[in-house]
Write a structure and sequence with these properties.
This protein is an alpha+beta fold and about 290 residues long. Helices cover about 65% and strands about 5% of the residues. A four-stranded mixed beta sheet has the order 3-4-6-5, with helices on both faces. A two-stranded antiparallel sheet has the order 1-2.
Length: about 290
């Protein structure tokens, strides 16, 4: 319930901020006496498309801590905590990034990395992961998450999501205007044809955009697997970790963190919308890495 409330509150806050921004900039007035102003509409689409993505990125660490209950352990004296922190520190040094915050959270076997910048990131592992894996396998998972940070995957995914959002907002309103004015012959303001068509196009194009973003996310997972192997100096620990994860239930992560987790379980048509490839495919791809 807490996660749902946080998700709703965050989205409401983002929409309020974006609504104020487009009003202040005058970008919500893309329909004038001459018809549809494509330049203003593009500006509106860019603010809506990229604004939400970047606000979510900037809030990502705060949201991650609040939604998972993650506890920062950088200064913990617990031996297991100290080992995790030292492992992250070693990999961060090898990858050439600043030391991330390190956290543990209660939950099924999983881990994630998040943060707006690669030099101020958060790497978190679950208690379920620590209980289900050997230390070598946990190291491989940590290497995978550090590779995400070093690759700048959080920013990359934000940019891709922003482009897709902009595309959806712009095209849906152009099509809506065309249906309203050309097909339905409405000549006063925006009619029901515009609003109905925009809603339908938002849904249809949103599905296509989600598939494209998910595809990019899956390619990113392959790179992070290979990055883990490079940080460890060999690929077998990551192969073993993936094989182990394939037999475990990763549970359901908060929606804002699903793409940043180490594991998910796609199946059927939903695999097209999954942020992670099947474990068998990840293992096969990693085995091909030199």
């Amino acid at each position: 319930m807490k996660r749902i409330a946080l998700f709703l509150m965050t989205n409401i806050a983002v929409m309020v901020v974006l609504g104020i921004a487009v009003n202040v900039l005058g970008l919500n007035r893309f329909l004038n006496e001459n018809g549809l102003d494509l330049t203003t509409l593009l500006g509106f689409s860019l603010v809506i498309g990229f604004g939400g993505s970047f606000i979510s990125l900037l809030m990502s660490k705060t949201i991650a801590k609040a939604s998972t209950g993650a506890q920062i352990i950088n200064d913990s004296s617990d031996p297991t905590h100290a080992w995790i922190v030292q492992t992250v520190q070693r990999f961060a040094g090898t990858a050439g990034i600043s030391m991330p915050e390190v956290a543990i959270y209660e939950g099924p076997p999983n881990a994630f990395a998040t943060g707006a910048f690669k030099n101020s990131a958060l790497v978190a592992v679950s208690t379920g992961l620590l209980q289900s894996m050997t230390r070598e396998e946990v190291e491989a998972v940590i290497g995978h998450e550090v590779a995400h940070v070093a690759n700048g995957d959080m920013v990359t995914m934000t940019l891709i999501q922003g482009v897709m959002n902009t595309f959806v907002v712009f095209i849906s309103r152009v099509v809506g205007y065309f249906v309203d004015r050309v097909i339905l012959k409405n000549e006063r303001g925006l009619g029901i044809g515009y609003f109905a068509t925009t809603i339908v196009m938002d849904l249809l194009l949103g599905v296509l955009a989600a598939m494209i973003v998910a595809w990019f996310s899956r390619q990113r997972e392959f790179r992070a697997d290979a990055g883990s192997a490079q940080l460890l100096g060999r690929k077998q620990p990551m192969i073993n970790a993936l094989a182990r994860l394939g037999g475990l239930d990763p549970g359901e992560m908060p929606k804002t963190l699903q793409a940043m987790g180490i594991s998910s379980r796609p199946s059927g048509m939903m695999a097209l919308f999954s942020s992670h490839p099947p474990m068998e495919e990840r293992i096969a791809r990693l085995q091909q890495v030199a």
